[in-house]
Design a protein that fits this description.
Structural class of chain B: mainly alpha
Number of helices of chain A: 10
Order of helices and strands of chain A: EEEEEHEHEHHHEHEHEEHHH
Number of strands of chain A: 11
Helix content of chain A: 25-40%
Helix content of chain B: over 70%
Oligomer: heterodimer
Largest interface: A-B, 21 and 14 residues
Radius of gyration of chain A: 19 Å
Largest sheet of chain B: none
CATH architecture of chain A: 3-Layer(aba) Sandwich
Strand content of chain B: under 5%
Number of strands of chain B: 0
Shape of chain B: elongated
Distance between the termini of chain B: 36 Å
Strand content of chain A: 15-25%
CATH class of chain A: Alpha Beta
Largest sheet of chain A: 6 strands, mixed
Radius of gyration of chain B: 21 Å
Order of helices and strands of chain B: HHHHHHHHH
Number of helices of chain B: 9
Number of domains of chain A: 1
Distance between the termini of chain A: 39 Å
């Protein structure tokens, strides 16, 4: 477990310091039509923390992440990034925020190199040589140098995910949001991604929020872990607390047993639809 | 009631997109490559089909006019009819319809696909507004390319009319007489009015198609539905605006 201790983040490429980012989610609720996806979720993420959100599929993790990224407007409650509304353009101008999407969300009409170079070019972060250095360094970290000229349609699912992470690194973010960063990756690359997330925290104090099903990642590198179930935050604490939890739902979620004699889906079949 | 609400919401988001896009107008000089790419897409690749369409509109106009005006002994005015009809109405209208079908549908499909596959969300988190890099270059390109397309459409249409007037034996007017009548009744103001109409239609078509593309939600089926909606809305907008712009330019 790692403790947040710094109040400044350092740019991974230039070493320049910036204020570390604090996240405050306050009684956040979200409805899509009649469907209630988030129900009064509240938590805070301290500057430089790695905050992991776990939970079953469909529990609202990705929607929560999209709120923090400013891509969704809350039905009730609020999200504050450094005290600012993340849906505003002015907030994104002040806070460098990167979101690693579950499916990569790469620009399909651009090569891998141009996908990474788009952000520094648009924000005029140095001349073309400096941009090339940053892009190639990010690609090297993710073992993608040879794929620079390829297009996203020519990449496997795992490679797309690595390109998405490389693209986020080029942005030199103060706040990094990951949506299932280790899914579709082989165990070694999954461990590499976990190490990258931890290194960004250790060396540069980047605030990270990770949505994942990866138990190893959550228990190894996180500062704190939140468990989201049915749109509610069921548990929030240190990784050790989670490991020792006696809540049967959390125990079952973290250590699911394959029971061929009493399969779960049979139980679900007999339950009433709410 | 719900239909009215949908129309009003669409109009509102269209105005919002326009205001947002115009607020980035100062960044256009830095988007030279994107602007040129869009000029190529909107102008150069549309040119052959505009030319073919205009040629045959000119021929049909001359043919119909020839049959009708023969009875009044007014065949010598075919040139003026084709000239005015092409310059003021059919050139701008048909070129804009073509733009909606060919370019507008492609724009909506591309932006809707980017929206559905979260590329637009990725741009938002990167603080790169879609209005700036996706809409502005397209709007600027259509404003530059529409007058070019209209001038070519008019010239080719007039030429098509001249071919029919000269070579269809029942009409049989010399090219000199045809163009003399065309020049006598078709002035620079008529061509300018037509080009102005085309500018308005082209701008609205591209804006509508961008807006529908950027507001697409769902999956691949919704992309197809968005393209259909964009083309139909564009065609309706062209026809409605045609009356008002014509009235305004009188």
């Amino acid at each position: 477990m790692m403790e947040a201790s710094c109040s400044k983040t350092r740019n991974p490429f230039t070493g320049a310091e910036a204020d570390a980012v604090r996240i405050k989610v306050d009684a956040l609720s979200k409805k899509f039509g009649e469907l209630s996806v988030l129900r009064g979720v509240s938590f805070e993420v301290k500057p430089g923390e790695i905050f992991v959100i776990m939970g079953p599929s469909g529990s609202g993790k990705s929607v929560l992440l999209r709120h923090i990224a400013g891509l969704e407007v809350p039905t009730q409650g609020s999200v504050a990034v450094d005290g600012l509304d993340p849906t505003l353009e002015s907030t994104r101008e002040r806070v460098r925020l990167a979101l690693v999407f579950q499916d990569g969300a790469l620009f399909n009409s651009l090569s891998v190199y141009d996908n990474l170079a788009l952000y520094p070019r648009e924000h005029r972060a140095g001349d073309e040589n400096a941009i090339r250095d940053k892009v190639m360094r990010s690609l090297r970290i993710l073992s993608l140098e040879k794929s620079a000229g390829q297009f996203p349609s020519e990449l496997s699912g795992g490679m797309k995910k690595r390109v998405a992470i490389a693209r986020a690194l080029v942005m030199e973010p103060q706040l990094l949001l990951y949506d299932e960063p280790t899914s579709e990756l082989d165990p070694v690359m999954g461990a590499t991604i976990s190490e990258i997330i931890a290194t960004l925290r250790q060396e540069y104090s980047v605030t990270s929020i990770v949505v994942t099903h990866d138990r190893e990642l959550a228990l190894t590198i996180s500062s704190r872990v939140g468990i989201l179930m049915g749109g509610k935050l069921m548990s929030l604490g240190l990784p050790g607390d989670l490991r020792n939890s006696r809540d049967p739902r959390i125990v079952d979620f973290l250590n699911p047993k394959i029971d061929v004699e009493h399969p779960r889906f049979k139980e679900l079949e007999t339950q009433d639809i709410p | 009631m719900k239909q009215i609400q949908i129309v009003l919401e669409g109009a509102g988001s269209l105005v919002q997109l326009l205001i947002r896009t115009l607020s980035y107008a100062g960044t256009l000089p830095r988007q030279w490559a994107r602007f040129i790419e869009q000029c190529y897409m909107i102008g150069y690749t549309t040119l052959p089909i505009v030319a073919v369409l205009s040629f045959f509109i000119g021929t049909v106009l001359a043919l119909e006019a020839g049959y009708s005006m023969e009875g009044f002994g007014a065949k010598q005015f075919i040139g003026s009819l084709v000239g005015l009809a092409m310059a003021r109405e059919l050139g701008p209208m048909m070129t804009s319809v073509l733009l909606a079908g060919r370019v507008g549908s492609a724009i909506t499909a591309e932006l809707a696909s980017m929206k559905v596959y979260q590329e637009i969300d990725a741009l938002t988190t990167m603080n790169i507004p879609a209005a700036k890099i996706l809409v502005l270059p397209r709007l600027a390109a259509v404003l530059v390319m529409m007058p070019v397309l209209i001038v070519i459409s008019n010239i080719v249409g007039w030429f098509g009319g001249a071919v029919v007037a000269r070579y269809v034996t029942s009409i049989g007017i010399s090219s000199e007489a045809y163009f003399a009548a065309l020049r006598q009744y078709t002035g620079f103001k008529d061509v300018l009015n037509g080009a102005t109409k085309a500018e308005v239609f082209g701008f609205v078509v591209v804006l509508v198609c961008c807006n529908i593309g950027l507001n697409t939600r769902g999956g691949p089926r919704e992309i197809g539905a968005a393209v259909t909606r964009a083309v139909v809305t564009s065609l309706i907008m062209i026809l409605v605006l045609d009356y008002f712009v014509t009235k305004l330019l009188e």
